[in-house]
Amino acid sequence: MDNSLISSDENPPRSEKSISFLVVDDDARARESLVALLKRQWPDITEAEDGEEAISLIQQRQYNLIILDLNMPKKSGDQVLTFIREKKIQTTVIVISGETSINKVTDAVRLGAYDIFRKPYSFDELEHSIRNALDKLLVEDEKAQIQKRLEHSEQLHRYMVNNSPDLIYILNLKGEFSFVNNSVKRLLGYERADLIGKHYSEIIADEDRMKAEYLFNERRRESRTNRTVELGLKCNAVNSSKSFQTSVCPIELNSMGIYSVDSKGSKKVSTYQGTYGVARDISSRKKAEKLITYQAYHDLLTKLPNRAMLLDRLDLAVKQAARTGQTLIVMFLDLDRFKLINDSFGHVVGDQLLVEVADRLKAEIRTGDTLARLGGDEFMLLLPQPTTRLQAESVAQKLIASLQQPFYLRGKEVYVNVSIGIAVFPDDSNDINTLIKNADMAMYDVKATGKNGYTFYDDKLEHAAAEKISIESGLRKALKNDELEIYYQPQLDVTTRRIVGVEALLRWNHPEFGLVEPNYFIEHAEESRIIEQLSDWVLHRVATDLFANEDFLASGIKVSINLSASDIRNKNFPESLVALTRHYGIEPKRLEIEITENMFMSDIQACTHKLQVLSNKGISIAIDDFGTGYSSLNYLRELPVHAVKIDYSFVSEIEHSEKGAALVAAIVGMAQGLGIDIVAEGVENTNQSDYLEELGCHVMQGYLFSRPVAVSDFLGRITTQKENYSSLSNA
Q1: Which positions ≥6 away from 15 have C-beta within 8 Å?
Q2: Neighbouring residues of 525: CB distance < 8 A, sequence distance ≥ 6
Q3: Beta bridge partner(s), residue 277
Q4: Separation CA 223–CA 229 (nearest Å)
Q5: pLDDT in tens, 325-338
Q6: I need a surface site. Which of 34, 138, 187, 405 has the fewest CB within 10 A?
Q7: What span, in angstroms and rounded, lies between the C-alpha atoms of 424 and 441?
Q8: Could you report the per-residue pLDDT of 651-665, keeping only the tens digit for each?
Q9: What is the pLDDT of residue 226?
Q10: Do residues 349 and 341 make contact, with C-beta atoms less than 8 angstroms apart?
Q11: What is the domain partition of the chain in residue ranges?
């Protein structure tokens, strides 16, 4: 070839600085951040906030490289790609999207996306892809220059054909190759001479022979021809220059018939001469699609199937089991205390542990079973073969045992337990989503009853869950509909027979069950965090019930209010309580908060600090149900405790058990030794009160003295006590 055709100073290739970018993203912050990074190297950057604006800009000027989001208002990224393809606009598109759908991503590849990144992405990787695209663009510029110089020349045609990255061929009337370009060596590993005179079927992959019979030897012309049809061509692996050796090369085929036109009289007759075709190598695209498909159905950390693949296999297994009348098992696995591992060692080490856990679990299951990671520390196991409950128990035991040996993280031994819930098809459900839900419910039952074990789903679990939802919903309505009420149980000093304290007790006027006590709903209230609203309501109601009454204000009686663990964990709890006392003008010494022993043991240091703040303000701290919770008494030295309340279960044993009476005596003696006030709960008869009084416990609370009463009854007793005391004083 004449070198003068390809070496000229006219229209030299553009420089990298002259490259024009268009960044399209409806997320303004993400778009502006990316533009700022790109402008460090490429100044010519335009922004678009949606697909409609992008199409408008593309119509106005040429952009060398477009960075495009998929999900956008007005017009999506798919529509922008379609517009670019239909208008044959010369540009390179890199897709950046949070889209996880395999179909969406595959469509973007088919529509011509050069590369795809999922949000969040690494800018370094994006920059590397951009530079590769720009290198390709510069090469294409050079080719374009060559094309201009060789235009109108026979040499141009031969050059373009022989240097095309695509395989270009011509078939004669018999379907034999009469021409192939140089790309046949690079793509398929054949010399041109190897194929000339050979029938096209010799290089068609066996599985595509029937399809190729109608497509490869195309006779139609122009718009009626087959375009972009995918086929497989056999490779000569020995001579192929491909970096990967494969027996079949996937190609995208365009072909059309070649006709000569002869004049016969006044008519022009077209005579079929053969077929012209172009075969484009789509190996890279197929490899990318395969990777994308793998990512869509696998967890990238553990390489286990993900939820999507699990649902596919579970759906198939359920249909097969339904036809054969067999059972199958679904197990929901959740690691116990995994958050503690992440908090202690970091997420990188936590991920390493998940990989090792997955490996151990896989070693315990059969080839046909499916172990999937759902996310976080949750796994699911499908046993599709006919499996009995006994066999399921055996598998669960093996899985638990497989994790008993220590894991070594950064040189330290770490032990991991697992809770397993089991659901059985068809006993527990015929629906795959319900099976998963039931297994999940059973797993949480294991968590609630000690962890590191397994259990089968039972209808009672669903009833319990439904009851929780009903109670939670009812409590929210109770707060709105004024169904809550405070009852007050006096605390008497038996030596003076005067009321010296009162405990505020929450009651719920349930529209169906009537007046119910907290043991019916308090646990569910704590789980759903409604307890914080309830505690706030109680504090405000007590303040308005009692501290607006003159007789109560003059009585000096202290009010005890029960608080929950959620209240204690609230970082603003001390300040909120102090602010409430100021708002209602409550003397802090008139207020006592009751907490149980187990409330503060998860973080005794933080709890101590908060309670000390209240104590410094004059608010008393009492330990409720003393002796029924945490076994260590060290906290009595750590916490600012002013009083302990002897639980009614101990008081009730005074008459029936010497050990029970001795235990009460020990509690009283210990409290006296530490200088802590004592209140006995649940006192129901004089034998109990006399024994307690002999021990030196003078403040008591129970049915012997008064049941919990409405605020009007309690205030009436305060008024009577005031009048009686005044009469005695005057006498």
Answers
A1: none
A2: 471, 472, 475, 531, 534, 564
A3: 169, 255
A4: 14
A5: 899 999 999 999 88
A6: 405
A7: 13
A8: 998 888 888 899 899
A9: 58
A10: yes
A11: 4-149, 164-288, 298-457, 470-728
**Tokens matching residue 229:** 């049809």
Q: DSSP states of 376-415 as a string?
A: TTEEEEEE-S---HHHHHHHHHHHHHHTTSPEEETTEEE-
Contacts of 3 (CB under 8 A, 6+ apart): none
Determine the Cα–Cα distance for residues 360 and 362; give it in Å rounded to an integer: 6
Q: Nearest Cα to 543, choosing from 511, 496, 590, 509?
A: 590
Q: How far apart are CA 6 and CA 156, in angstroms?
A: 10
Q: Which fold has domain 298-457?
A: Alpha-Beta Plaits (3.30.70)
- Please report which residue ranges of 87-217 form alpha helices under DSSP H: 102-110, 123-149, 154-163, 183-188, 192-195, 209-215
Rg, Å, the chain Cα set: 40
Written as six digits, the tokens of 166 are: 């695509």
CA pair distance 342, 337, nearest whole angstrom: 9
Question: 4-149, which class in CATH?
Answer: alpha beta
Q: Are 307 and 372 in contact (CB under 8 A)?
A: yes
Q: Is 627 helix (H, G, I), strand (E, B) or coil?
A: coil
Considering the segment(s) 164-288 as one domain, its CATH architecture is 2-Layer Sandwich (3.30)
State how far the alpha carbon of 50 is from the alpha carbons of 47, 56, 79, 84, 458, in Å: 9, 10, 11, 15, 51
pLDDT of 351 > 80? The answer is yes
Residue 2 pLDDT grade (very low, low, confident, very high; cuts 50, 70, 90) = very low
Cβ-based neighbour number of residue 174 at 10 Å:
11
Burial label for 506, CB within 10 Å (0-12, 13-18, 19+), is buried
Pairwise CA distance, residues 717 & 487, whole Å: 14
